[in-house]
Amino acid sequence: MLRFANIEMLWLGIAIIPVLSIAYFFYTRYKRRQLEVFGDAELMALLMPNASRVRPTVKFSILMVALALLFIAAARPQFGTSERTEKRNGIEAIVALDISNSMLAEDVAPNRLDRAKQMMSKLMDNMVNDKVGLVVFAGDAFIQLPITCDYVSAKMFLNTITPDMIKTQGTAIGQALNTSIRCFGQQSEASRVIILITDGENHEDNAVEAAKKAKEMGIQVIVVGIGKPEGSPIPIPGTNNFRKDRNGNVVVSKLNEDMCREIAQAGGGIYVRCDNTNTAMKAIQHEIDQLATQEFETQVYTEYNEQFQGFALISLLLLVIDFFIFNRKNKAITKLDIFGEMKNER
């Protein structure tokens, strides 16, 4: 099993390297235009016989690969080397998270979706021997993460969730509950719970029947309503505008608490409203603590070996190669035509 001890460095590299590549592209285009100001490109090539168009790009590419490997090394990749079966006491929980566009409303800070993700991340921090899985839904529903004891992976998947993951808009809560039920797989003696997080707007299918089905299978449904009953407009990402209906009126997304309570009652669970306090998280944690825990077996990795050395060594080798490649042609090795420049000159 692969994991990163300092995964923040990996995200930093993913952010920096594209920026550097774009900056290099515009810089080279600027230099090319500056040369064109002085005269014809073929004439300038005759005046600068040792200038190379290929080498700077090759050097930059090598440098970027080396930098990427350094970021991977800094993230400290580790592989699990031994696996064993452990018996643990805990519950099995599926988080069904609404990612429809209405979850971008900002009646809770920073917005409904991010607030829900923050709450679940803190809840996972309190988990020890529990299993957790992720289901995301809007007009459709799918499994984002199968049920697991790997909380690091669960939080990583949670952080990557955005409304763009599902193109079909709506709030298919019934489908989300049925998908969550399938996540549990075979019958289990462990207490099982679905934590449904939604604003309940534009409810499309028979969620109450799905909640009753879950209850019949011994699965409790906890519903977390996020937002405010009075509602809030839905921002359009990257703009200062809000979503509008066909008539040009600003859409106001309202929390449907009545529907949320009805689903929770049908699922034998509780309904809590998530705001800018920790009240909802405490209520969920209290409810989970009340559930009877049952011993179950799980596969865990007990030893992890550091694997950054190979990435660091290759990066160092590439830096050395980059050092010995000159921006200008080397007369001593020009005949070797490593970069195909003589062919290009013809």
Give a structural overview:
This protein is an alpha/beta fold and 346 residues long. The protein has two domains: 2-79 and 305-345, no CATH class; 92-292, Rossmann fold, CATH 3.40.50. The chain contains eleven helices and eleven strands. It has a six-stranded mixed β-sheet with strand order 5-4-3-6-7-10, with helices on both faces. A three-stranded antiparallel β-sheet has the order 1-2-11. α4 (112-125) runs antiparallel to α5 (151-159). The longest helix has 32 residues, at 7-38. The relative contact order is 0.17.
What descriptors fit this protein?
346 residues; alpha/beta; 2 domains; three-stranded antiparallel β-sheet; six-stranded mixed β-sheet; Rossmann fold
The gist of it:
The protein contains 11 helices and 11 strands.
Task: List low-confidence stretches.
Answer: none
Distance between the termini: 52 Å
Give the oligomeric state of the chains in this entry, treating copies of one chain as homo and distinct chains as hetero: single chain
CATH structural architecture of the largest domain: 3-Layer(aba) Sandwich
Q: Give the helix level as a range of percent.
A: 40-55%
Average pLDDT: 83
Q: From the alpha carbons, calculate the radius of gyration and give it in angstroms.
A: 28 Å
What count of helical segments does DSSP give?
A: 11
| Main β-sheet, spatial strand arrangement | 5-4-3-6-7-10
Return the structural class.
alpha/beta
**What is the total tally of β strands?**
11
Major sheet: size, sense and barrel closure?
A: 6 strands, mixed
Give the CATH level 1 class of the largest domain. Alpha Beta
Order of helices and strands: EHHHEEHEEHHEHEEEHEHEHH
The CATH superfamily of the largest domain bears the name von Willebrand factor, type A domain
CATH-defined topology of the largest domain: Rossmann fold
Beta-strand portion reads: 15-25%
| CA-based shape | flat
Tally of discrete structural domains: 2
